[in-house]
Amino acid sequence: MLINACTFVYQFHLMRMMMHLVLLMIVGVSFVDSLASRNLYVVPIPLVNNKISDGSQQHPYNSIQQALDHIENSSPRNRRTIIHLYPTYYFAQTLRLTHVHSHTRLVTMNEQHVDFYDDFIVQDHSYQRLKRASISGGLPITGWTQISANIYSATVPASVPVVNQLFVNDQRIVRTRVPTNFSDYLYYASSLSDPNQARYGFQYQQGQFDLKSLNDAMVIVYHSWTESHHYIDHLIASNNTVIFTNPSEHAIGADLLQGKKRFHIENVCEALVANSFCFVNTTKTVTLMTDGSYDPTKVQIVASLEEYVVVIAGASVNQTIDDLIIDNVAIQHSAWDLDRNQQADGQAAAFLRSASVYIANATSIILSNVEISHTGSYGVWIREGTTNINIMNSLVTDTGAGGIRIGQTISPVPTPTTSINILSNEISYGGNVFPSAVGLISHRASDVTISDNVIHHHRYTGISVGWQWGYAPSETSNVLIQGNYIHDTGRHILCDQGGIYTLGIQHGTVITNNVIKNVYSFAVYMWGIYLDEGSSEILVSNNIVYNTGWAALFQHYGANNTIINNVFARASLIEPPQPDDPRPDGDIRVQLTENHTSWNYTRNIIYDTYQGTNHSAFRSDQQNPIVSFSNNVYFNTYGIPLLFGHQSQQMSFADWQKTGQDNGSVIADPLFIGDANQCDFFTIQTNSPAAQLGFVNITKLAKWTPGCGTDDDQFDNQFYHW
Q1: Among 88, 483, 500, 680, which residue's Cβ finds the most Cβ atoms within 10 Å?
Q2: Vertex 125, ends 121 and 126: CA angle to 5°?
Q3: Are 377 and 356 in contact (CB under 8 A)?
């Protein structure tokens, strides 16, 4: 009955996803081919004899806002409109699409139209022709003056509030940092004794703040799964204490096991190194040190300015924006800004309130073949009052926080977020400003499909679903996480994370056919699939999880989860990263066991490569867990005995079976095709003992890449090299 029920749930999700895909194809075709469509053209470059702009092909508008105003002032408003954009940069204030812009498509114009306009561009006008139109929330910085060999400065208009992100030739340039080796940290001396005051500062070591100017500096303090961002109020030199204007969520130093007293200081001009910059607010001066490979007077340099680049939002849930398509467009250079008194610390960087693309009170929205990049916060946030929102075949990369954010954090949810489809995207290189952000997070939402995405190089969790700790109603259900390739997350920056992370009761949620590899923390707590507080009613099936610092599967506490037909390989792979860290916890683990079934665990393979002693295949942190194990295969490549049961009374496999667990299970080589120690795809041979117990081979993902490398040799821990 258990297996039949799981199969039904999985098939239901597959049918739902196929229906979504068919509907998307129908919507796209009908939109493009509609004979009733009107066409507007935008070319933000001076054209010969274009004194009158009406949006026609012969007389295009010179801004996207003009085209949006045209739609708003036209009738009938339910007529479909296609806005064709010339492929260059559009530096503009936030574009706001409301209910009056329903039935609109925003797209880069085709080559035929581009060639037509190229013949009429004013000869002495310089511009960049791109592969696709770029809607930018940035401001080009010009007027650079050379100060010394590779150091240049420029002044921005007084209206610019702050410059905290800079992009040179489409590459992120980092703010200066102390220590100047971006993989190193400063370590404070001690916490403040008063627990509330300890949220506002710490005692530093002598000399750490002996810097010329701290007026514009920011201190980033590392805790556990979060980091906090602080402005400096003042220093108390008599006892080496720094006091901030804004607090952290918890007392600084409350979790030394994970935080290790780490911090660094940003935006100090005397710390300039190659490809870094600083900003002095009183003079509105940006100072840039190059690496000598480019001349700032001859390249495009952009500072992010707008926190929102594109807002797609109806006035209310009763006045939504409907039937909108954005495709083959780049959306770039969104900003981040923190008030000097704002708490800037929290799980998944949920304190952030902006995104490059912000969607609310909207239905039937498609973002297809879109690039969202160089952001200050999350790339996309799909909020309240939304249904049938689709992001597909797109790239979300170089984000200040995470990639895609779905749903709301408040409860009860006033207007739901439902029917969200995130399909076949790449979400990569995130957390450049706020490391605790998640590659893709769904807070409180239902009927969400997250399928066929590649999520990699984020400094914290890859996918996170749910926002309810414990067993209260979660307002999260029917989430399908399928066929995603999640790799190289954590990057040794924070702690307490997973490749896929869940919270709360989630009826109908399925985690299936995903591949997770290379999950590493700075110190402790780094799991492949992480079923955290109250995670319940979740089906985990047909996943491959390998190369994790701690267990491949971890359940903090929860009820009635089903773990079936997975491969958990090469877990607890590394030695404790820091000298005082505890040892990793083995292959799979349940921490808190309660008076109900924690999980049913059947037809899985554990492939263990640990070479020490006293190593757990399964560990529970409490006595007599209510769990069910059957028909599994366990194997250690070095023949080391694997242990089972309560952490203080671990037992051999034979004794474990005497307790009634793992009937039908065996310790035997699963007989993978290829070399599992070289991280081939963990496909079993037909004569495998796992096949005899009912294990079915897992479909290889088309986007999966082989090899056991952790990629640490290509990137330093803090900043990616573009």
Answers
A1: 500
A2: 110
A3: yes
Buried b (16+ CB within 10 A) or exposed e, 562-584: bbbbbbbbbbbbeeebeeebeeb
Longest dimension (CA), the chain: 89
Q: What is the C-alpha to C-alpha distance for residues 313 and 606, in angstroms, rounded to an integer? A: 47
Higher pLDDT, 421 or 15: 421
Q: State pLDDT tens for residues 267-297.
A: 999 999 999 999 999 999 999 999 999 999 9
Torsion of Cα atoms, 294 then 296 then 298 then 301, to 10°: 110
User: SS3 string of 115-160?
Assistant: HHHHCCECCCCCCCCCCCEEEECEEECCCCEEEECCEEEEECCCCC
ω into 577 cis (within 30 of 0): no
pLDDT digits (tens, 9 = 90+) for 545-590: 999 999 999 999 999 999 999 999 999 988 888 888 999 999 999 9
Give the H or E element holding residue 456. Answer: strand 454-458
In DSSP terms, 326 is beta-bridged to 106, 367
Contact between 132 and 328 under an 8 Å Cβ cutoff? The reply is yes
3-state secondary structure of 19: helix
Contacts (Cβ under 8 Å, ≥6 apart) of 302: 136, 138, 139, 140, 141, 166, 167, 333, 374
Kindly list the domain boundaries of the chain, sorted by start residue.
Answer: 36-136, 140-302, 486-709
Quickly list DSSP for 220-243.
Answer: EEE-SS-EEEEEEEEEEGGGTEEE
d(CA 57, CA 249): 54
Asked if 359 contacts 386 with a C-beta cutoff of 8 angstroms, the reply is yes
Contact between residue 485 and residue 681 where contact means Cβ atoms under 8 Å apart: no
The per-residue pLDDT for range 595-637, each reduced to its tens digit, is 999 999 999 999 999 998 889 999 999 888 999 999 999 999 9
